[in-house]
Design brief:
heterodimer, A: alpha/beta, seven-stranded mixed sheet, 6 helices, about 35% helix, B: alpha/beta, about 25% strand, globular
């Protein structure tokens, strides 16, 4: 497992790079506001359809949530992009026993109210056109181990151009009121409701 | 209405430029395999979700459809980019007498089997995630006036990012039959069936 590393120089460089990427490549990154508890960490669950997801959500964290950003990513990605560990990235290998350590580590991060952990429960990149999300069950271990210590936020992102040369990213955030999910299907259903609602809002945009 | 003053030289230069430009801006532009009917003009109906759509039409005219490119543009957009008339654009003012003239001009162009006319049936910019394609009545009027064999093709372009920071365009092409042989209601129904099929196929697209 690859753990996040602290290096202030790298951290600032990555922050500057993310900011530059956002400004250079997007006309706007839109998101709604949600309440943030100072005494609770944040578990952010999002749809995974592109390499932009982490960058957009890291941007939103800087602007709105203001927590220490951590993201769970596949070990293959972490090996390919080693600098990501300085931006809060830690790895998970779905095919090894080490997976348990990654999930435990994510739960441990949620003990600290200053932290935010971003997880893509779909487990891999899917099309942005999907109407139904399917979650892998590992996230339940994180939720059960860190129960009561975090605020669960759902994020659904869609990217579109419309009349603009640069695309616009619309992220819809929603705090989950009830965090006591017994099975992965309960969690999936709760997220699905938010995803469907956000997608409907996106569809209704006409220029 | 301002008719097109298409020239082969301007079209060739523009096509080369657009191809270079799109290859720079997109990770992948992938029109799905499609063979047009020989000896038929092509009435290409494209879902309208961004300002790139006309360029996708131009890209396909030379790559896999092999016809002379013409495109119907809204009058205000046309006035902003008047130089497009040299590569096949002509104007259409909605809700005016001028519209009748534009529709008749489109039908005249489609009476020549060497031509291809791109029209956005939705008549406005809609989200790329829409599940229903609204087809405006003007399409029926055009089809009724075409004199000569003309194949109606629906192109559903879907944008994805997947692992890349650059967008990828997947263009799903469907044969909607020959003008005059398909009733308008059936055509609308077919377009929506094809659109739903494209969304379904997109989920399984290789990346």
């Amino acid at each position: 497992m690859i753990y996040p590393k602290k290096n202030i120089l790298f951290k600032w460089s990555i922050h500057a790079y993310v900011y530059w990427l956002g400004v250079r490549n997007f006309k706007e990154i839109n998101f709604n506001t949600v309440e943030v508890d100072n005494d609770k960490s944040i578990l952010l669950i999002a749809n995974h359809f592109s390499a932009w997801d982490t960058i957009i959500l890291s941007w939103i964290n800087r602007k709105l949530l203001k927590k220490k950003f951590h993201v769970m990513m596949l070990e293959s990605t972490a090996m390919k992009e080693p600098f990501l560990k300085y931006a809060g990235g830690f790895s998970i290998n779905k095919t090894s026993k080490d997976m348990v350590n990654s999930l435990d580590f994510a739960a441990k991060l949620l003990d600290d109210p200053d932290n935010l952990v971003l997880i893509f429960p779909q487990g891999k990149i899917y099309s942005n056109m999907i109407s139904e999300v399917v979650f892998e069950k590992g996230i339940m271990q994180v939720i059960k181990k860190a129960a009561g210590k975090f605020r669960l936020i759902f994020a659904a992102t869609f990217i579109e151009n419309f009349e603009n040369f640069k695309p616009v990213a619309n992220t819809s955030l929603k705090t989950s009121v009830d965090n006591s999910f017994n099975t992965i299907l309960d969690l999936q259903e709760a997220y699905q409701q938010h995803y469907t609602h956000s997608r409907q809002q996106q569809i209704q945009i006409v220029k | 209405m301002i008719p097109s003053r298409r020239t082969e030289f301007a079209s060739y230069l523009f096509y080369r430029y657009v191809r270079w430009w799109m290859r720079r801006k997109f990770n992948v532009i992938q029109p799905m395999p499609f063979t047009p009917k020989p000896g038929h003009s092509i009435f290409l109906l494209i879902n309208h979700f961004s300002w790139w759509d006309g360029f996708f039409g131009n890209y396909m005219a030379d790559t896999n459809l092999g016809r002379k490119f013409y495109i119907m543009m809204q009058h205000d957009h046309f006035m902003k980019h008047f130089y497009f008339k040299y590569i096949g654009a002509f104007s259409m003012k909605k809700s005016s007498r001028d519209m009748v003239e534009s529709l008749a001009y489109t039908a005249k162009l489609l009476s020549n089997p060497e031509n291809m006319v791109v029209v956005f049936p939705q008549g406005e910019l809609c989200s790329n995630h829409v599940t229903h394609v609204n087809v405006e009545k003007g399409i029926e009027r055009i089809i009724k006036q075409i004199k000569g064999p003309c194949q109606i093709v629906y192109a559903c372009t879907l944008i994805e990012y997947f692992e890349s920071l650059k967008p990828s365009a997947y263009i799903h092409l469907y044969d909607c039959g020959v003008a005059g042989e398909v009733p308008f209601d059936t055509l609308v129904e077919n377009i929506n069936t094809f659109h739903a099929q494209a969304l379904k196929d997109q989920v399984n697209v290789e990346h």
